[in-house]
Amino acid sequence: MSAEAVATSSAAAPATSRKNPAGIFLVVGIIGLAIGLGALVMGIQNNDSRLALSWLVGFTFWFSVLAGMLFLTQISYLFDAGWVVVVRRQMENCLAAFKWLWLLLIPVIALPLLMDNPGLVWRWMDLDAVVPGIHHTTVGNDVLYLHKAGLLNVPFLIGRLCIYALVTCGLAFLLRKNSFSSDLEINPKYYKNCRKISAVGIFLTAFTATFAVFDLLMSLSYHWFSTMYGVWFFALSMRLGIAATAVLCFHLSQQGRLKGLYNQSHAYFLGCLALAFTVFWAYISFSQYFLIYNANIPEETFWYNIRELNIDGSKSAWWYVSMGLIFGFFVIPFIALLWYPTKIKPWRFRTISCWIMFMGLIDIIFNVVPIQEPVDNILGFQVLPFLSPALLVDVAVVAGIGGICIWAALRSAAKQEPIPLHDPRVLESIHAAE
Amino acid sequence: MSHATAEVTLTPEEQKARSELIAKAKPVDIPRPILVTGGKDFHWVTEKICGIVEGKTPLWWWILFLTAACMATFTLFGLTWLVSTGVGVWGLANPVNWGWAIVNFVFWIGIGHAGTLISAILCLLRQKWRTSINRAAEAMTIFAVVCAGIFPLFHVGRVWFAWWLFPLPNSNWIWPQFRSPLEWDVFAVSTYGTVSVLFWYMGMIPDLANLRDRAKVLWRKLFYGLFAMGWRNSNRHWRNYEMAYLLLAGLSTPLVLSVHTIVSFDFAASNLPGWHTTIFPPYFVAGAIFSGFGMVLTLMLPLRAVYGLHNLITQYHIDCMCKIILATGSMVGYAYAMEFFIAWYGGNPYEGFAFINRAFGQYAWAYWIMISCNVISPQLFWFKWVRENTWLVWIICGFVNVGMWFERFVITVTSLANDYLPSSWGYYSPTIVDIFTFFGTFGLFSVLFLLFVRFLPLMPMGELKAVMPAADAHGHGSGTQGQGVPHHDSEGGHH
Predict the structure, then answer these.
(1) Residue scoring higher pLDDT (B328 or B124)
(2) Which of A415, B174, B421, B477 has CA atoms 20 to 30 A from the CA of B432?
(3) Which residues, including other chains, have CB under 8 Å from residue B341's CB and lie 6 or more apart?
(4) Distance (Å) of CA B491 to CA B210, B326, B462, B466
(5) Number of Cβ pairs closer than 8 Å across A and B?
(6) What does the DSSP assignment read for A117-152?
(7) CB A355 within 8 Å of CB A363
């Protein structure tokens, strides 16, 4: 990207003269990925799905963050919003991580296939695998799989994933290119281009995110389905994207490039968005749960049942996780963000944003990990437990993929101006008032 | 309140770097659109809006009013026939026991939800262009809720027992079914109706006071004086007003979402293929916004032409509304696509059949009308020349209205007509009573809306003035999007 290479910020100089944080994040990323990779290989060799799922958890977490930022960037262009310009540049820097992120999905897809344990994560990839809960039936004989085999097969999945990568990386590239180019030349075409790209891109992103989450998460239990699942992911990604942006901007305003540029109003508006999407996430999650609970159709309810009950009918640890999500991911952020000072006091907003990211990770674990494994009991399956040492691997992979993503973002930031100098709304943003 | 960054201490070097950076920031010139065009002053706005109410009743108004009133009698006729005979006069018959009544209810309630949603959400999002349309949208909401309420009310059969819908102690010890979403509708819609009326009415108080102060005849002084509740344009009044308005906007937004969500539960909480789908709540809300903007433009474009409101409802306003119709129409299209995809993906043959049957079965004509009107026709709004052609915009909005009625028809009737038991399948057709009752509601709606146009301020004058270039005399907000504060006009009042 030529614009990236040319634009070198004078304001970035004080930050880069200090110890290079990008290098630190790269090291953290490599260490985390090494741990995750070791666990993945160990999982494949020992047929331990839980270890392998950690990689998917880490990928999904950062995919949510970046998808949220991509949504928010495009929405801000479409609304022609003024306050967001200072903040948007930081998100554009983060979007540089998309290409690395998609590369980091390869191990969890490729290694189980290459190491002859294809159904370890996505059971449908192994036609000889026993279907949990249905005795003496393999995936290859499962009528529900056979119905979906045209979609759920490895070559087509890889093709679709390539399309998702192409769409997200392509949009990130185009938005970044135009935004960074506008720093070099006072020309309205760049802003107009971004608006046009966003108008088309928002639809592409919506369908990409929806089908990506169908493929990567919903098909983990390929019998299950929900039309709401894509909307749930949108809500989650917006929450995580906003929270990550708030933490990043806070950090940059304290120690880095946004000192004196990111003000109380930006924090307030981000806080309002965080509150709105807290409610939206709760609304979507509740609606999905309620409609499935109320209809009580076994083909749908099993997804929640395995997240609630042990084999003897008692509450499993997942039930407590779900309660934790209700209170920790909705009630606490909702009440906290209703409060004006939470939105504007830096440490409070940073704390609640970190909390939202932590609970977002728990939500992803709740959606990814409790898959069924065939065993010889009355149900014919057991559910992977919540409490396991693999939680530490989850953390390592989140840190690993996160390290690479942040490294990519910082690398981009080091080459660019901290704010889009010639954005038509840049002064509105610098002087934003509530 | 100190700025967050005030806690950050900048070294002199950093301060210098910041100042240099800000000095380098030279925004490219893409000015924000002017919301009130033509270089008009505050007085012009007052005269324009009050003039609609104070002027002589135009002939076209009488013609439309009488026509609408005649149309409304169709509803009266239909309902009289229904009550005197029984619900059997409607086209309801096994297996379609929910026919036009629920279709019409959801159609009107969708439009009804949209007005307040538009007004409240745009208020919270600080979209200044809302000022030209919010009052009419809110009025539309209330009149649409009135029309919507008729259908479930009379669908209960013995309408004189409709009060049983409320959990009032009674000698028969009969209680409503609290587990039914239809019962939730009673509470949701009545709460929503109440808040919508409050929101609409409260927003009008300053303008009613304006009309009161300008009134030259006694009945006007008394009528507007009574409803202006002693408004005197004092600073304290405005402070309280703005806080109350913001609070009501904040309350209305989740309330609207909840109401249309509950309407979607009427269907989605069942086990019927085509109804039981988890995306229904947000899909219904998106549909309500879609149909709401469709109806707002359907109503406002003729008013704009008749009253010469081109400086108040500018091309920018029309552009914004067209783009929202495009966005929400596409969201509705996304929901249709998800329903279809998951109907296949789920592997449930009944679910799969329900959707194949919608598209290619006996009601395929209705389905494709729905798709054409709701998904395809709004795509024309991608083109600027379409958005700038008022006639085309109005026609497409007509399609949106038609399409949204058909959406509810498709959802309701196709799933019921061809359910689990092929031996009970049937083809639903409305009777003349159904048609009369529905047709008449357009008359009722028009009567109420015409009365609103004639007797109440069509736009919030105070808010309009706050977004005029004249309100930003020092140019802080580029003189366009209302960054400035409301000024006092030449008459000494903040109208």
Answers:
(1) B328
(2) B421
(3) none
(4) 11, 42, 13, 16
(5) 149
(6) -TTSSSGGG-TTSBPTTSTT-BGGG-HHHHHHTTTS
(7) no
The predicted pLDDT at position A13 comes to 43
Q: Are B347 and A148 in contact (CB < 8 Å)?
A: yes
Q: Where are the alpha helices (DSSP H) in A186-263?
A: 188-216, 229-255
pLDDT value for B305? 94
Say what the ipTM of the complex is.
Answer: 0.92
pTM of the model: 0.91
Window 249-288 of A, Cβ < 8 Å to B: 253-254, 259-264, 267, 279, 283-284, 287-288
B278: chain A residues, CB-CB within 8 Å: 226-229, 287-288, 291-292
Q: Do A288 and B257 touch (CB under 8 A)?
A: no
Q: What does the alpha-carbon distance between residue B143 and residue B37 come to, in Å, rounded to a whole number?
A: 30
Q: What rounded mean pLDDT belongs to chain A? A: 92
A421 interaction partners in chain B (CB closer than 8 Å): 21, 24-26
* pLDDT tens digit sequence for B312-362: 999 999 999 999 999 999 999 999 999 999 999 999 999 999 999 999 999
Kindly give, in sequence order, each residue whose CB lies less than 8 Å from that of residue B173, ignoring residues fewer than 6 positions away.
none
Chain B contact for A425 (CB, 8 A cutoff)? yes
What DSSP designation does B4 have? G
Query: What does the longest C-alpha to C-alpha distance in chain A come to?
Result: 71
Residue A404's pLDDT is 97
Residue A121's CB is within 10 A of a number of other CB atoms, namely 23
Q: For residue A48, how far is the Cα from the chain centroid?
A: 24
Which chain B residues are Cβ-neighbours of A191 within 8 angstroms?
A: 28, 30
- The token pair that represents A185 in the structure block: 């030349």
Which chain B residue has the Cα nearest residue A289? B278
Q: Which of A8, A227, A263, A277 to mutate to test the interface with B (most CBs of B within 10 A)?
A: A227
Nearest residue to A77 via CA among A201, A228, A206: A201
pLDDT (0 to 100) of residue B4:
45
Which residue from A minimizes the CA distance to B339?
A227
Report the distance separating Cα B231 and Cα B238, nearest Å. 9
With an 8 Å Cβ cutoff, are A422 and B28 in contact? yes
Ramachandran angles phi, psi of B480, nearest 5°:
-130, -60
Q: Which of A419, A358, A399, A406 is nearest to A94 (CA)?
A: A406
Task: Tell me the three state secondary structure of residue A381.
Answer: strand
pLDDT digits (tens, 9 = 90+) for A238-292: 999 999 999 999 988 887 788 888 888 999 999 999 999 999 999 999 999 999 9
- Do A85 and A418 form a contact (C-beta atoms < 8 A)? no
- Name the residue type at position A304: Y
Which residues of chain B make contact with A71, given a CB cutoff of 8 A? Answer: none
Could you report the per-residue pLDDT of B75-104, keeping only the tens digit for each? 999 999 999 998 889 988 888 888 899 999
SS3 percent helix, strand, coil of chain B, rounded to 5, is 70, 0, 30
Between helix B235-268 and helix B181-214 the angle, nearest 10°, is 150
Residue B374 DSSP class: I
Name the residue facing A225 among B1, B257, B342 (closest C-beta): B342
- Distance, in Å, from the CA atom of A152 to the CA atom of B283, rounded to the nearest integer, reads 27
Q: What is the pLDDT of residue A19?
A: 62
- Domains of chain A by residue range: 3-430
Partner-chain contact B345 A207, CB within 8 Å: no
Point out which residues pair with A373 in neighbouring strands: A382
pLDDT in tens, B66-83: 999 999 999 999 999 999
Cβ contact B8–A261 (<8 Å) = no
